[in-house]
């Protein structure tokens, strides 16, 4: 059974008085030891298969999304640029999955440098995703509720906004990059874990509260506000075409929340337990550990789901993909003529409707 190292401080793992290490090894567990970690009872090789599946789907799907958006240079919209960056974030994270899969089976065998790098990419993926979705919600709000052209007409601003999102995501992820390293405990496989020295609990709380506030709760509030008013405007105006143009965006947001909201709620529970706001017991600690295992797997699935949404819901994405295949002779051009290009309305700049 694998230990969920993310839920335990280094003090939890070593009984300094008795010099006994506390992995998932009952034979050397001392009577005075802290709670013995328990993890979700999923076969390690089943986890490797899941990670490999997500890796293949994400690599293929997000590469196609990037290709389609880059080919649609003429009709590319502001929202398209955000979705392009979203696909890039998911693709970068997908490239780290083989190492996470190997660590599930063999422990962390890649050293400190790669430990820092893949942990950084994972965090950047999460924060950039929700910040990009928040920007899309603002763009749709301005386009539909206020029908304004001031922001979205200026295409060059979108590039700076995206650069700002990547920079903010990097800043929010820096604590993980700074503190994570490869740790080689006795009697167990190496792990990629935060080493924060003294005051581990204090630093861990800071590392959670600030990013969750600025990297999750605030963007989520922006999204709820913007989409709430956008939906009200659409229903009041009976804009059927705009309803169809918004389906992909709503689906993307919904999938993101379904994948990552459970994980963040469990993290909030764990933080409250560490703050002693709720009573800490061995049973509760292990329950939270198992919940973090399960919800993190769900979060990993997010990186491969957006392209599936585009393929099943997005007419323009399918048209763009068929066009690329026809240009390169992969399919007959008859398929392209049969595939009528969908029209879009409801842009704030005349060209800001979603590609997908």
Give a written overview of the molecule.
The chain has 356 residues and is mainly α. The protein has a single domain, classed as Up-down Bundle (Rhopdopsin 7-helix transmembrane proteins), CATH 1.20.1070.10. 68% of the residues lie in helices and 3% in strands. It contains 11 helices and 4 strands. Strand 1 and strand 2 form a beta hairpin. Helix 3 (78-94) packs parallel to helix 6 and helix 3 packs across helix 9. The longest helix is centred in the middle third of the chain and has 38 residues, at 200-237. The relative contact order is 0.15. Mean pLDDT is 76; it is low at 1-33 and 341-353.
Task: Describe the secondary structure blueprint for this structure.
Layout: H1 10-13, E1 14-15, E2 20-21, H2 44-71, H3 78-94, H4 97-106, H5 111-144, H6 155-179, E3 180-183, E4 191-194, H7 200-237, H8 240-274, H9 282-313, H10 315-327, H11 333-338
Antiparallel strand pairs: 1-2, 3-4
Helix pairs in contact: 2-3, 2-4, 2-9, 2-10, 3-5, 3-6, 3-9, 5-6, 5-7, 5-8, 6-7, 7-8, 8-9
Care to give the gist of this entry?
This protein is mostly helical and 356 residues long. The chain has helices at residues 10-13, 44-71, 78-94, 97-106, 111-144, 155-179, 200-237, 240-274, 282-313, 315-327, 333-338; strands at residues 14-15, 20-21, 180-183, 191-194. 68% of the residues lie in helices and 3% in strands.
